[in-house]
Design goal:
This protein is an alpha+beta fold and 291 residues long. It folds into 2 domains: 110 residues, Probable inorganic polyphosphate/atp-NAD kinase, domain 1 (Rossmann fold, 3-Layer(aba) Sandwich); 154 residues, Tumour Suppressor Smad4. The protein is 32% helix and 35% strand. It has a 15-stranded mixed sheet that branches. Strand 3, helix 3 and strand 4 form a beta-alpha-beta unit. Helix 1 crosses helix 5, helix 2 packs across helix 3 and helix 6 packs across helix 7. The protein is globular. The two termini are 16 Å apart.
């Protein structure tokens, strides 16, 4: 049985992660040898994941939201240790793609007993790795607004951010290069680069994504009016936006983007910088525990 280390973000999900840990700790004790570490500040989970590897743990569990997952994953890329996830945040898009159970007890059991697969990761050069999706435009602007409003009421803040962005964000010009092919895009409202199928808390933007095929899925919408954007956003939840004449989709291994305007970008739901940026796929760089 593998040695398992749980990394718990006690404030994730307004305390939901800590409550989950208290619920599953007796189960973890029955399942095998385990340890636990609690995050204390942003970026701390990266350090704790690296420490868990040094201490000889075979599997490291992210118990928190998408931000915790991103940090734990960044501490594990390139090591033999495997990432396991117990979702206790708002988005939980990575677990939707991989089929990891959302029930805490089932997730705990999977952390000990699940199989290990090698999955792709994305690298934002000069920044860090990401494991689900990166993007700029509408989604990154929503993230900026949600952070501004605060996360005391996360669902309300997210909905407010969506509607505020709809009425105030009109798109940006982008110079994009995908695997050496350059494109000038006039007024982009959203450009998403993904490994997983979902983003934004359940929006099925890449229905056919395979997190182990060594390719990014790439989608963008250009020259969209607000009503068109609303319509497309409603279609994305079910994946029915594919084939829409205003939605472009392709695949690639390297994406570079720049803009004459100030444009921020997000990695796994966290705004981390401004353009220019280059995203590269890193095939099979992460060991992950999945069903």
């Amino acid at each position: 049985m593998p040695r398992v280390c749980f990394i718990v973000n006690p404030i994730a999900g307004r305390g939901q992660a800590l409550a989950c840990w208290k619920q599953i700790e007796p189960l973890a004790a029955r399942l095998g040898e385990y340890g636990v570490k609690f995050t204390e500040r942003p970026g701390h989970a990266i350090e704790l994941a690296r420490l868990a590897v040094q201490e000889g743990y075979d599997r490291v569990v992210s118990l928190g939201g998408d931000g915790t997952l991103n940090e734990v994953g960044n501490g594990l890329v390139g090591t033999d240790a495997a990432l396991a996830v117990i979702a206790a945040g708002r988005g939980n898009d990575w677990v939707r793609t991989t089929g990891v159970p959302t029930d805490a007890a089932e997730g705990c059991r999977l952390a000990f007993e699940g199989r290990v697969a090698r999955l792709d990761v994305g690298l934002a050069r000069g920044y860090r790795y990401f494991f689900n999706a990166a993007g700029f435009g509408f989604d990154a602007e929503v993230c900026v607004r949600v952070d501004r409003y605060g996360k005391r009421f996360p669902k309300l803040s997210y909905l407010r951010g969506v509607f505020d962005t709809l009425f105030h964000f009109t798109g940006v010009p982008l110079d994009v290069e995908i695997d050496g092919e350059r494109r000038r895009l006039e007024r982009v409202l959203l450009l998403e680069v993904g490994i997983g199928r979902y983003f934004g808390g359940g929006m099925k933007i890449f229905p056919d994504a395979d997190p182990a095929d060594s390719l990014f899925e790439i989608a963008w919408g250009e020259n969209l009016g607000r009503l068109e954007l609303l319509r497309i956003v409603s279609l994305i939840y079910s994946g029915r936006h594919v084939g829409h004449p205003k939605v472009r989709m392709t695949r690639g291994r390297r994406v570079t983007a720049d803009s004459p305007e100030r444009v921020v970008f997000q990695l796994d739901g966290e705004v981390v910088g401004r353009l220019p940026v280059t995203f590269e796929i890193v095939p099979g760089a992460l060991n992950a525990v999945i069903p």
